[in-house]
Each structure stands twice: as C-alpha cells, then as structure tokens.
Design brief:
Layout lengths: L1 H15 L21 H7 L2 H42 L3 H43 L12 H5 L5
Length: 156
C-alpha cells in the first residue's frame, strides 16, 4: 500500500514539475512577446544584419558613457578645486557662499552630464530599433527588452 502511494506521489510530482516525457520543455517567452518556433526563425533571420545593428548600438552607448564619465570626472575635479578655494577664504559668510556656489555648480554639471547620457542612450536604442526592423526577422532575436538597463544608469 505504501509502495503504491509513493509511486503515485512520485508520478504526480514528476507531472507537476515537468518531468514527464510527454510535455514540451521549451521555456516561456518573456512577458509581452509571442512564442516563436525556433526552427522557423532560424532560416528567416538575417543574423549578420542584427549583429551589425547591435555593434553600432554598443559603440554608440560606449561613446555616450565615455562622455558621461569624462563630464562627471570634470565636475568632481571642479568641485574639489572650488571647495579648496572656498575654505581658503576668510570669514564665515564668504566661505558659506563659496561652498554653496561650488555645490550648486557641481549639481548643475552632473545634471547636464546625466541629460547628455540619457539623450545618447535614447538615440542609440532608437537607431538600433530602426536598424533591427530593417533586418529580415530581426524582431525575433532583438534584445530591445533590455533597454531599461541602460536607461537606469542615468537616473538618480
């Protein structure tokens, strides 16, 4: 009796967790995407075209990030110099005013750097989406769903 129960429980668990040999073991597509028949996609996608679009996007994003980090480093360097000058002054009011100006200038510089990064990121992904659409079957293998990872870098 216990043996039959264990066999039944094991069979039920295998069926529940997908260990049955009769089920389709393909993973579900990401939310919002339709399932694709990989055999049908293989022959109809211009992978080289999509790869070129991805390479152009990544190069554009890399350039935008280089600009962002250069601008951020310049803002930090300018803040350090401005604060050093501020604390070299005499008189509390003069120091307070110079410190406020240093931090205000720093904040404005970082804001512009983030805006420039966000613009570069949006442009790179927009151009990529246009280029990938022009590729035969490009939507089937596109990684556009990951654009939010780049967008989050410029947020604060």
């Amino acid at each position: 009796m216990i043996r039959e129960w264990l066999v039944g429980a094991a069979t039920g668990a295998m069926m529940l967790f997908g260990a049955s040999s009769t089920s389709d073991h393909r993973p579900l597509p990401p939310k919002g995407e339709k399932p694709h028949d990989s055999a049908a996609i293989k022959g109809s996608v211009d992978i080289a075209c999509v790869a070129a679009a991805v390479a152009a996007r990544e190069q554009s994003l890399s350039g935008g990030m280089t600009t962002f980090t250069t601008d951020a480093n310049a803002a930090y360097s300018a803040r350090a110099s401005a604060l050093a000058s501020a604390y070299a002054q005499t008189g509390n009011e003069a120091v307070k005013k110079a410190v406020r100006t240093a931090w205000s200038t720093f904040s404005a510089s970082l804001k512009v750097a983030r805006q420039n990064w966000n613009s570069a990121q949006r442009t790179a992904w927009s151009h990529f989406k246009t280029a990938a659409k022009a590729c035969r079957g490009g939507e089937a293998v596109s990684d556009s769903g990951n654009a939010s990872a780049d967008a989050s870098l410029g947020q604060q």
